[in-house]
Specification:
mainly alpha; 5 helices; flat
Amino acid sequence: MAQQSPVSVLQRIEGLPIIVVFASMLALFMYTAPTVFLQPFIYTTFLSTLPPVILLAIGLTWWIPGMLLAIGYSVFVYRHFAGRVKSGEAGYGHSGEAPS
């Protein structure tokens, strides 16, 4: 079994750039304001002041319109392209036949 190079392993991790940016920003914040970002009690104090209903409402405020947009888009695409795509027709190189 051939060994993979470290570069190919790093290229397969899709979220690596986002993780690197997040870690670097967090490190920068911790360096510039350590009294704020290194004390965990600040975060628990903030969360204890908000009732759970408000936290759920904030999530649902974004989730409900997002789902409505997704369902509306699906319905629009289905109705717009209904009957226009035939599975047996040869078009765009997808004829349904095996390549020869």
